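#struct-pred
JK: can someone run the complex with guanosine-5'-triphosphate? inputs below
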Amino acid sequence: EEENPENLSERSPIVTIMGHVDHGKTTLLDAIRSTNVTASEAGGITQHIGAYQVEIKGKKITFLDTPGHAAFTTMRARGAQVTDITILVVAADDGVMPQTVEAINHAKAANVPIIVAVNKMDKENANPDRVKQELTEYGLVAEEWGGDTIFVPVSALKRDGLEDILEMILLVSEVQELKANTDGRPRGTVIEAELDKGRGPVATVLVQNGTLRVGDIVVAGTTYGKVRAMVNDRGRRIKEAGPAMPVEILGLSDVPSAGDLFVVYDDERKASKLVDKR
Ligand code: GTP
Ligand code: NA
Ligand code: MG
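RT: done, structure tokens with the ligand placed:
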């Protein structure tokens, strides 16, 4: 396609959170999100969209708010790769559990680097060394133990260590040199979608290349439509969305599936023909 390497620019990392049941994934996501929200924006935040961006030191990080396993299995089954970094949450009082191991396997299969968040450090029986010890069996050896895995002690509940996590994400993503073409044909992945009573089919998409604009004709999985409106992760109407930006789009004729790829077409007739063939 019209991939001109000269048009490539830096893009923000896309991060998913994985880990065993009740180890604190949702609490951590919510804590990170709310620390980066100004009071005036708080109202918009209650509106849930399946991904959000935070900013630290002038750099953005995109978090996918979907269950990590679903993000990996559904999306990878469809050939989509949306994650750059996985945060593996392990409760310091519980240690490595079956879904911890599953998460490691998913990330390894997708070749996605892992940062370990040792959570619940506020608990009396927190034992971060045990977590480190147990994870060595799965090839995750802490830097301080001579390996190359970053471990960050956190308390999602008390909101301790959140900045450290964000800084480590930036560190890892700098090495990755993530790039996207802001001028290329807009395409990306559907993160989640639903039929909204008032608004019709609503899809949260992650733009991965190009700039998606209101008025664009989009094919997503087996549906298509003209983008009627876009809403960002703060509940604001926006007119365009660039790489690594999560956005809700309205105007599709039907509800696509999570993991569906979307792409913009110049011509509505071509788009509808393409969809008919699928
Ligand atoms: P699932 O989505 O069900 O897999 O769970 P989860 O990993 O999203 O865990 P969740 O965030 O729902 O937290 C589970 C429980 O642990 C809740 O009662 C949280 O309040 C608690 N919890 C989460 N983080 C911390 C923490 O840092 N310290 C303490 N003490 N409790 C925490
Ligand atoms: Na839970
Ligand atoms: Mg949860």
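RT: quick notes.
The longest helix spans residues 162-176.
The chain has a mean pLDDT of 89.
JK: thanks, will look after standup
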